[in-house]
Amino acid sequence: QVQLVESGGGLVQPGGSLRLSCAASGFTFSQHTMTWVRQAPGKGLEWVSSINNGGGGSPTYADSVKGRFTISRDDAKNTLYLQMNSLKPEDTALYSCKTYVLGNTYWGQGTQVTVSS
After folding, report:
1. Is the pLDDT of residue 41 over 80?
2. What SS3 string covers the chain?
3. In this predicted structure, what is the pLDDT of residue 55?
4. Contact (Cβ atoms closer than 8 angstroms) between residue 87 and residue 10
5. Within 10 Å of residue 27's Cβ, how many Cβ atoms?
6. Is 31 helix (H, G, I), strand (E, B) or coil?
7. Could you give phi then psi for residue 55, rounded to 5 degrees?
8. Predicted confidence band at 53 (pLDDT cuts at 50, 70, 90)?
9. CB of 11 within 8 A of CB of 86?
């Protein structure tokens, strides 16, 4: 079955960096668009970034993270990444990866990112 497992979250000071990973299994990773989303405490779900399969088109980013976050993928390792630089307190959230396989949406359990001094 489809599984997405995030890792790499933690506590970081403002201005710091983290790299999140999403290990995928149970589907042909290289053939699917992958997405990062986040949910801050007391707020709704926010789309962060997406990357297409097969190198089609450029990655896309929410305005709130553009220029600070970089999404990438390693199809040989079935892994999605999110490099987060210049982190701000407002980036504090549960970060999850997401994909669509055969008409169904799949999510990971998420990894918590807390930006605080």
Report:
1. yes
2. CCEEEEECCEEECCCCCEEEEEEEECCCHHHCCEEEEEECCCCCEEEEEEECHHHCCCCEECCCCCCCEEEEEECCCCEEEEEECCCCHHHCEEEEEEEEECCEEEECCCEEEEECC
3. 67
4. no
5. 18
6. helix
7. 70, 15
8. confident
9. no
